[in-house]
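Before anything else, study the sequence and fold tokens given here and see whether the fold suits the sequence. Record follows:
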Amino acid sequence: MGGIISFIGLRLYKSFSSGDLKGLDNDRDQERSWRDELNTLERENASLRRSLADTQASIHAKDTQISNLQSNTAKAVNASKARVLEVERQLGEVQAELKRVAGERSALEGLLETRSKELQMAQAYLSRTDTFSGADIKKMVVALNAEILQTAALISDAFEFQRSAPAVDEQGIKLAREELDIYLGGRMLELLATSNHHEDTFLIQLACQASMCAWAKSMISSWYFHGPEAEENLNSIYEHLRDSGE
């Protein structure tokens, strides 16, 4: 009995041992496969970690580069803004200077135009030949003196003197004496007022002759007949030109 049990146990042990060994081999193969796969995964993980570290380092370098670029760009923008403000200030100064120079140029052009017109007028007179010669002027003066002498004689002969003095306008007489005093003088006026002209009209003729000579001189030497102020200015200009020899 005991031998049978031992035999059966031995058979069972052999049977169990054979199946178990096959399972163990399979487990070992599977374990090796898992270990190989785990090693592969670990290697891939390590490679990924290295790639990640490289990528992070590259990103950090890029971030640093971007930060530097942003800083440099901000500095360049600020410098450009400052430069623009400086250029605008200089441009304003240049525009103000150009405006001032344009004003001076306009004033100079106006002065040049005025001087050019004056020069043209002066050249017109300087280049003009005398209409009459000195001999012609002398003859005309002699003829004028003769005309004045004859006219004065005719006027004095035409006077009709009255014995009794007619009514006169005292104010008119006063104004006439003031005007004649310029040409004849006070002594001549006194003689005209107190002398007897019935028999001799020489004083009348002389007074008429002197008055006409003075009036002729005034007309000959006048530049403008319509206003004393303009006449004085023109005469002053003529005297200045004559004295300066221009």
